[in-house]
Write a structure and sequence with these properties.
alpha+beta; Aminopeptidase; 12 helices; disordered N terminus
Amino acid sequence: MRGSIFGKRRKDLDYRNKEETPRRALPFRVVPYSAEHKGLVAELQRHLWSPDTRLNASYLEWKYHQNPYIREPLIYLAFVGDKLAGMRGASGTRWEVGDPAEFFTLPYPDDLVIDPAYRRQGLHRAIMNFALRDLAGRGHRYVVNLSASQITAGASMSMLWRNAGRVKPLHRRTLRKIAADFLGNRARHLPLLWRWADSVRALSGHSGDHLFDRLDARFSPPDQGRDTGPLFGRKTPLNRQMAQLVARLPRDGRIRHVRDEAFFGWRFSNPMRNYRFVYLGRERLRGYIVLQQSAGVNGDRASIVDLEGESDQIRTELLTAAIEYGEFPEVLLWQLGASPATTQAIERHGFKPLGAAHENSILVRSVRDEELNAAWMLGGRRLDDASQWDLRMIYSMVG
């Protein structure tokens, strides 16, 4: 059983809420996930993933059952009687450090959700404690979360996680988007007009299923009247060529996620995301930029989840092409780890901080109690130091 605590004690473990000021005391039990729980998880995740249980089931299958790094789904469930009341999962990630690279598989705790009827019962702490013991028993040493919200970060720090630093997202909005948001916010607080607030915001430009229309049209086949030279766009990824490009570029030794063909193939199969790809180099790929739209939210926002190229000039050209050809109402990116030249290009395009409320934290933790006061190192790099990370949105679960 690979040292799992489920070897001799596979049966459920009972926990009672031990918070100092509980809403009410309820007995609950934490159990490991099995395939028979799929339907229950898809239903519970209507509080987090989406209101569509079929989409939730597809996301569950993709993230945990098809994960290329940890094949057995690591999901931990809290039940009150027969009612599924809470969940947290830990999907697999694969990291490379140094040059030549060393490789490490780290679980990524995510997807915390508690049924509203059972919140403030201590379920989160009980689930996470259960998960940490199990992960330690399976031979893992650290866990990492690169997209922790302020609420998640606060709860995690009380459980002895470390915050390596904050990711401060940047965004740029068109004047039309700024005006539409302003009018929509005003309308929302006015009698009779509040019901049209969302309709006003829709005036920002292409959104929803049409967000990528202009980009797609720009990179239509040449026989439809447009020659874009070495630049070309696709709705589907060139996984092998992208992986080959990454492999031949120099690395600086910082902690970064593996970007090989298997990773790209898995990442871009996410049913909760809609991706577009702009490439430079038709004979030999010299650079790429990946744009993403999240299902059901921020319908007029395109996020830049990865940008890579053989030179700063190529990366700048790709960034400019995505912005100018896409004509998106809003573009979001993470700047952490960008080169000075790319940072200058970002500034020239008018990107501004999105605001502290939208910042994510890089959270790390040892799963071994005896190492909680030690230095947490991965391949000679400190896990709890943001400067040791080459961090991109594509590595996180918002990518």
